[in-house]
Specification:
Blueprint (H helix, E strand, L loop, with lengths): L27 H11 L2 H13 L1 E2 L1 H8 L3 H14 L2 E7 L6 E7 L1 H20 L7 H25 L3
Antiparallel strand pairs: 1-3, 2-3
Helix pairs in contact: 2-4, 5-6
């Protein structure tokens, strides 16, 4: 887990929106909506599977998560609405109709791998540090800074 050791609390902008690049693809509320969406366990598990298994059909997701169709689609729609997941359809050779599947977007991949997954890996790597409350606050601040750097990388990755 890399950290930017040159940044101090004093050089943070007064307005968190000022962390965004001048020509940002998304505004701060859209980034916050993405993080809020992943804050629900079912949505996190959906995104986790889509990032690590590439694409999945609704039936595959239902079976993997052991949830009913309506619950799955409720959470999928939330993830699609905030831009973490995309719904795709295509025809399958030899079959009538369209095959529907879902896959993570680049924002979904970064939010998961540089967000919650990174926090989990950080806890595994720095378990001893968590025993001290002052170290816990330092790690939380470092993780928040890493999240900002992750979104800068995704902006560059999509053409900024």
């Amino acid at each position: 887990m890399a950290t930017d050791q040159t940044r101090t609390v004093d050089d943070a902008p007064d307005d968190p929106a000022d962390l965004l690049p001048e020509e940002s693809v998304l505004d701060l509320d859209e980034y916050l909506d993405m993080h809020a969406a992943v804050g629900h366990r079912t949505r996190y598990e959906i995104l986790y599977r889509l990032v690590h298994r590439n694409e999945m059909s609704p039936k595959e997701l239902e079976d993997a998560l052991e949830i009913d169709d309506s619950t799955l689609h409720y959470h999928l729609n939330k993830l699609v609405d905030v831009g973490l997941v995309e719904k795709r359809q295509r025809t399958e050779r030899g079959q009538d109709g369209l095959y529907t599947y879902y896959r993570a977007t680049v924002f979904g991949e970064v939010t998961l791998t540089d967000g919650v997954d990174e926090l989990i890996r950080g806890e595994q790597s720095f378990e001893a540090m968590y025993n001290s409350s002052s170290k816990k606050r330092e790690i939380q601040a470092s993780n928040a800074l890493n999240s900002t750097n992750s979104f800068k990388r995704v902006s560059k990755r999509i053409g900024q």
